[in-house]
Amino acid sequence: TEWAGGPDLGFESQAAGKPPDKPWLAMGANTISPEAQSPFAHIHPPGKQGVRMAASVPNDGIRMVLPRPMRKQPDQSMHLAIDFRTLAEPAQPGACRFYFGRGVIESTAIDFSLSTNQLAIRQSDGWKVIRTIEPGVWHTLAVTLHPATGTIEGVVGKPGDLTPIRAKTLPNWDGVIDTFICDGLGHQPGKVCTHDLDNIALSLKPLGS
Predict the structure, then answer these.
(1) Cα-Cα-Cα-Cα dihedral of 28, 21, 193, 114, to 10°?
(2) I need a surface site. Which of 69, 96, 145, 156 has the fewest CB within 10 A?
(3) Which residues, at least 6 apart from 74, have a Cβ–Cβ distance to it below 8 Å?
(4) Is the peptide bond before 189 cis (omega within 30 degrees of 0)?
(5) What is the value of pTM for the model shown?
(6) pLDDT tens per residue across span 102-154
(7) Of the candidates 192, 209, 194, 170, the residue with the CA atom closest to the CA atom of residue 59
(8) Separation between Cα atoms, residue 204 and residue 79, nearest integer Å
């Protein structure tokens, strides 16, 4: 089922206890689980499961290629979102990356990075920490890209505790978003912390509309 810009972005058509299957591509220790269901329903309808991603090698992760790419148009924005939770145990030093762009890292619009207790965004001069993350607690991230100006605005956090995001798209982005990737190539080296993901959105329509 398509919701928020693409097929199965909430993992609801997947088989519990197994890695994500088509239309997702998965490598490594990634498992569909009821424990990874986001409690939020402001973008996706209430569901029954998400994906738990365990520590593994940096290139392992999940990938979704949209059937209809989003392309830069005058006066049209792009809307991206994801719900996430990190787990404090087992303790791991590394960070995962949320990539939004064209192809398999062919042209990057935005990179976010999630460690056990930090969320960062990549800018032209390197990674910038946006806020502290509380392990074991669900957070939501929602941003709007304005391709004409190369600006990003949005929020990340939990109900009653949202941090504003003001940033720039990466300078070599070609204006197309057709792929979401979560892998282990974030802002801190080492094995990636175990984390839950759910309710991804990549849409030309304002989220929640």
Answers:
(1) 130
(2) 69
(3) 148
(4) no
(5) 0.94
(6) 999 999 999 999 999 999 999 999 999 999 999 999 999 999 999 999 999 99
(7) 192
(8) 6
